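Hey team,

Filing this mostly as a record. A colleague (T.K.) asked me to run one chain through the structure pipeline before their review meeting, and I want the input and output archived in the tracker in case anyone asks later how it was produced. No errors, nothing strange. Just documentation.

Input sequence:
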Amino acid sequence: ALDRALERAGAQPRIALEGSDLLLIRALAAQGFGVAVLPRSFAEFPGPPLSVRSLKPAIRLPVVLLWRKRRTLSPAARAFLDFVRAEASESEKIEA
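Output structure:
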């Protein structure tokens, strides 16, 4: 999603590092090693201070929940699914 957004904007970033350890990426950015694109929750994580700027337009990624049909969910899984259903916006669809 980020690559497509950068392409649409005509941006050609020089990528020196890609990683899946978001706390490490956050720490490197905080130490001045470069700019990082992180979910806001990681950017706001306690630690060395960062300058945070929102991407405009925002990049949104879908979240999908999967579970086996005809299988009983644990009480915790059922509670989580009920919570997600209650929090989902009108435009989001969650099937049973």
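Quick notes for T.K.: The CA atoms of residues 38 and 48 lie 15 Å apart. The helical segments are 2-9, 22-30, 40-43, 75-87.
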